[in-house]
Specification:
Helices cover about 15% and strands about 25% of the residues. It contains 1 helix and 5 strands, in the order αβββββ.
Length: about 70
Amino acid sequence: MGRTLDEFKAETEEHGWPSFRPEEVIDDNVVIAENGRDVFSKCGTKLGTNEPDSDDMRVRYCLDLVCVSGNKV
């Protein structure tokens, strides 16, 4: 939301992990800790952390890839 898939991919490659902006978060599915840094699923799994952009301190929730699983293709 608010950026293209190519922009998402470029930011992922720049920082080394996928990240999401506040407008892309589905609030019903996550809990932002009171510290504003840690992000959890509603069931309590830690999803990642807020790692603000260094130039403008804009919120960027970075996804911890160990919380992602999938099926072999």
